[in-house]
Amino acid sequence: MKLTLEEVQHIAELARLQLTPEEMTRYAEQLSEILDYAARLQSIDTSGISPTDRVIDAGNVLREDIPLPGLDKQQLLENAPDTEKGQFKVPPILE
Amino acid sequence: MNETVDLSPGELLSGLRAGNFSSREVTSEYLQRIEDLDPGLHAFLHVNPKISLKQADEADLILQAWRLDPSQDLPPLTGLPLAVKDVLCVKGMPCTSGSKILENYIPPFDATAVKRLKQAGVVILGKTNTDEFAMGSSTENSAYGPTRNPWDLERVPGGSSGGSAAAVSARLAPAALGTDTGGSVRQPASFCGVTGIKPTYGRVSRYGLVAYGSSLDVVGVLGISAKDILPIFRIMAGNDSLDATSIGLPVPEIKLTDDAPDLSGLRIGIPEEYFIAGIQPEVQQKVLEAVDMFAELGAAVKQVSLPHTEQALPVYYLIAPAEASANLARFDGIRYGPRIAAEEMWDIFRHTRGRKFGPEVKQRIMLGTYALSAGYYEAFYGQAQKVRTLIKSDFDLAFQNVDLIAAPVAPSTAFRIGEHGDDPLSMYLEDIFTLPANLAGVPGMSFPVGFDKQGLPVGMQLMCAHFQEALLFKAAHAYQKITAWHTQRPQL
């Protein structure tokens, strides 16, 4: 199976990745090769087999909802590239 | 002072308690060794002597107080230096995960594994190099440059915990934390001639571990011997309310004695699917010689079959990237890491992620996004999750007849830097023997069993049923009592 550049562009868009034209060409080739390899799984008979969502079934894990102090707001903001008045700053989303 | 870097963690802890040397002296000696040798190895991404020595001084005060009044409780690892893979958060130290997208990120909290070890008294020496977001088998995918194998500087240390394996091998740390999603503790341990454990999935909390494949990721530890890493494993292990997949079972008492080793009653299985054409002949030979030693120690050796082994590679390279594509969605240039400025928010996401993620990470995000996308989900991700069930059933069935499974860790010894070039599939093939344990969630331990003709370490792995780590420690310790492979040191 050979991915087209349009398909690669579509995947990159879903993944929110801006790719250069060289990257697009390279990923089209490499992803096609890997997906070809992975397609061999489709020949395995899995009728009646359930998917493994978790390797160890711990059941539902429940706990009391007890409020505890969270992380320090100032410390968290120190890692952000842009902040204002104690908040993360982003460009306007709505006109 | 004697060279404390020649001492094991157990000997260091005894010496610290006896007051033969201080934690400041031990820590300083390791920091000096890192300063002298790490420029040639690049095992560490961050070292902060000020923080490490402050922790050492605190440990020394606790040790002094304890010596005055030994009836007090002394945290079991007080004063022991430890290196930490750079995908685990250590409060106040950078955590880049080997990626430019987390450049300058300083977590304001400790990972649970780190927190428990700090409470037990360890001194953090620094953060070790890793393939970006632990995606790789050679540490070449680190955005900060590769780590070199202490046994041959032209070769890779394995990966993704290559920095931790190289650090332990070169005695830049007495032990180091790693993580294993598809072999990332066991394979570098093998390439660098050290011992490493990948615990059962869920045995150690993943809180504070930068997530790659959440149904596969496990925190482990590397050291010179099974005995050396045992106390570190035991302290990290156990239920944590901050990770709902961490398991509530008690951590077993594991006693490793100095008595003559005896493994009678233990059944070891040899899976035919792990001894295949294409494997380096010396690797197969050394592993089978080690199996003979286990038989001499009294273990019963029999053939077993894990018929879906070959499917582990395609299954893993759909499931892990699928999980990664979701986990890495959080890196968007808003809350941490650098931002590529743009007028539109979507462009901030696209440009920051496009420029700050490395090529392999982008490849896996794309692969995972594709495998989960509408129209392909059932054929790729869904089918992989079903074949994963078959792989897990193979292990369940095998462990009805044997206690341990013995196998090579990787098809060859350490390969050359750049050898796999721009061919991801050939690099992925390096993982064929380590992936199945992650897909089945079973624990595994890798340890050295000899050297090839080029003088490179050969490792083998033992795997066992969920939560039976005690068997791995018992068997590896017995082997290490009667062999000296693990004590060999690279010339640096």
Task: Provide the CATH architecture of the domain at 5-37 in chain A.
Answer: Orthogonal Bundle
Kindly report the CATH topology of the domain at 5-37 in chain A.
Histone, subunit A
* Portion of residues within helices of chain B: 25-40%
Radius of gyration of chain B, in angstroms, nearest whole number: 21 Å
Brief summary of the model shown:
The complex is a heterodimer of chains A (about 100) and B (about 500). Chain A contains three helices and two strands.
Spell out the blueprint of helices and strands:
The complex is a heterodimer of chains A (95) and B (492).
Chain A (H helix, E strand, L loop, with lengths): L4 H10 L6 H18 L34 H6 L4 E2 L2 E2 L7
Antiparallel strand pairs in A: 1-2
Chain B lengths: L8 H10 L4 H19 L2 E3 L2 H20 L12 E5 L26 H8 L3 E6 L33 H8 L5 E6 L5 H7 L2 E4 L19 E6 L2 H11 L30 E5 L9 H16 L3 E5 L7 H16 L17 H12 L2 H14 L5 H21 L5 E5 L15 H5 L6 H6 L3 E8 L5 E8 L4 H14 L10
Parallel strand pairs in B: 2-3, 2-4, 7-8, 7-9
Antiparallel strand pairs in B: 1-3, 4-6, 5-6, 5-10, 9-11, 10-11
Helix pairs in contact in B: 2-3, 5-6, 9-11, 9-12
Structural commentary:
The complex is a heterodimer of chains A (95) and B (492). Chain A is mainly α and 95 residues long. Chain A has a domain at 5-37: Glu-tRNAGln amidotransferase C subunit, N-terminal domain (Histone, subunit A), CATH 1.10.20. In chain A, 36% of the residues lie in helices and 4% in strands. In chain A, strands 1-2 form a two-stranded antiparallel ribbon. Chain A starts with a helix and ends in a 7-residue tail after the last strand. The model of chain A has no long low-confidence stretch (mean pLDDT 93). Chain B is an alpha/beta fold and 492 residues long. Chain B has a single domain (4-269, 287-309, 394-487), classed as Amidase signature (AS) domain (Amidase signature (AS) enzymes, Alpha-Beta Complex). Chain B has 15 helices and eleven strands. Chain B has helices at residues 9-18, 23-41, 49-68, 112-119, 162-169, 186-192, 226-236, 281-296, 312-327, 345-356, 359-372, 378-398, 424-428, 435-440, 469-482; strands spanning 44-46, 81-85, 123-128, 175-180, 195-198, 218-223, 267-271, 300-304, 404-408, 444-451, 457-464. In chain B, strands 1-3-2-4-6-5-10-11-9-7-8 form an eleven-stranded mixed beta sheet, sandwiched between helices. In chain B, helix 2 packs antiparallel against helix 3, helix 9 packs across helix 11 and helix 9 packs across helix 12 (378-398). Chain B is globular, with a radius of gyration of 21 Å. The mean pLDDT of chain B is 96. Classes of the chains: A mainly alpha (95), B alpha/beta (492).
